[in-house]
Amino acid sequence: MAGPGEDFIRLFTQAQRALYLYIMPLVSSSADADEILQETNVVIWSKWSQFTPGTNFVAWGRAIARLEVFRYRRRRDSRLQLLGDDVVELIAEQSAHQISDADQRRDALAECVNRLRERDRELIQRRYNSNVSGDEVAEQLGRPANSVYQSLGRIRRVLMECVRRRLSSAGAAT
Known about the structure:
Number of helices: 7
Distance between the termini: 40 Å
């Protein structure tokens, strides 16, 4: 049987950060999280043919990572475990919800930024994509700094309201 295809490899690669962020609160150190992510990746790679294209890859990976966290905990001296498996399970569930919420907020923000007037979108991108200060943006644009800060404040308020509306409408739809 051939190995995983390009789509699987792309999903696998894109999921790495989300899986690490899922694992991290479940363990005591970043070294443990790194080790568990590595073991999770080995399992994911070995089970690539079991993944159903079109389903949620990250959710599938989290299920594997959760099992790897418990396997890792069993391998370690149980006397060193500060939290019971039931507490780790609860943290895992909460972590998955928080990551999902953050993903929804990020997606809503991206949509809201795309809906801005071109001039406002360019100002926000200059300020945040380039990681430069408002003063530097004002200098680049030849505008007074106060004017740029007022515009950025107005645009941030518009974006916050847009994100709030999108999230509340998404919550009503579920």
